[in-house]
Amino acid sequence: MSTKSPENLIPAEEAARPFLVAALYHFVNFPRFESFREPLEAICRENGIRGTLLLAHEGINGTIAGSDHGIAAVLEYLRAQPEFSGLMHKESRASAQPFLRLKVRLKKEIVTMGVTDIDPQRDAGTYVNPAEWNDLISDPDTIVIDTRNDYEVAIGTFREAIDPKTKSFREFPEWVRAHPELKDKTKIAMFCTGGIRCEKASAFMKKEGFGEVYHLKGGILKYLEDVPEEQSLWEGQCFVFDERVSVGHGLDEGDLKLCRACRHPLSPEDLVASTYEAGVSCPQCFDVRSEEDRSRFRERERQIALAKKRGERHLGE
């Protein structure tokens, strides 16, 4: 009689990509957010979780990674709080821990737009499920807007989507106000990585007088997970804010790297450019950095390499 080893009982995907990544956010009135930071950080550390969680009066936002058991324990703890009983999250997997450390931070906003008097809980636009998204954005009466930043859009977006070319989400309201012609179309459809930015952006646009405002439920990540590649209107890869850098259809890890000097995603072509030096410069930042900056970055890389030889992790990594 044969017996199976414990390794053979582990699902193939979990064995190949053992780290579970959970992206989550929830808009809610949360006045006790400051006192919640320490217990939340404690439960994350107890379960070996890394990543970033942001807490503010308006709720929670973040992405964390760890073992399946550890992620389940943190999500169970969050949903046990009355404010987060309805918390939704999205899962993907990683072959290596995609975060270097754990950060639980207090913020004024869980996603920074800098506009007061908007309430995504009450005023957000209409959710559109991934299965219905293609029909909406293919409608000639629909304007499709990518609410992410320029470096994210550069590696992938939906066909025919408008790129506001913003450097940060704070610039989005100004961009909308500078383009009154947007109101010439009947419908506005917006999307972002996980859904949080376009949820807030949709509430802002409704406040600005736009009527039919829609946003992709679960964001690009949910679309790439649910919609088969052969039916997809997505082109390129989706930037993610962790060491995976990007994901593609099926949420498979992409082939991009990250410039440690400017944090921009780098294509295989960027990595062989004359202006690329690991941890020091890349084609995106070479012309805007001084030689003094590059000398400082080289020293940081040297210290990181020395720390690795000692079996330690350098704080600048």
UniProtKB/TrEMBL annotation:
Q: Check the record and name the Gene3D superfamilies matching this protein.
A: 3.30.70.100, Rhodanese-like domain
Q: PROSITE patterns annotated for this entry?
A: RHODANESE_3
Q: Which SMART domains match?
A: RHOD
Task: List its EC numbers.
Answer: 1.14.-.-
InterPro entries, sorted? Rhodanese-like_dom, Rhodanese-like_dom_sf, TrhO, TRHO_N
Keywords, in A-Z order: Oxidoreductase, Transferase, tRNA processing
Top EC class, one word: oxidoreductase
Give the reactions, separated by semicolons, that this protein catalyses: uridine(34) in tRNA + AH2 + O2 = 5-hydroxyuridine(34) in tRNA + A + H2O
State any GO BP term from the record.
tRNA modification
- Check the record and name the CDD domains matching this protein: RHOD_YceA (cd01518)
Q: Pfam families attached here? A: Rhodanese (PF00581), UPF0176_N (PF17773)
- Gene Ontology MF terms in the entry: oxidoreductase activity, acting on paired donors, with incorporation or reduction of molecular oxygen; transferase activity
Ranges for domain Rhodanese? 138-232
This protein's superkingdom?
Bacteria
Q: Which HAMAP family match?
A: TrhO
Reported function: Catalyzes oxygen-dependent 5-hydroxyuridine (ho5U) modification at position 34 in tRNAs.
Family, as annotated:
Belongs to the TrhO family.
UniProt name for this protein? tRNA uridine(34) hydroxylase
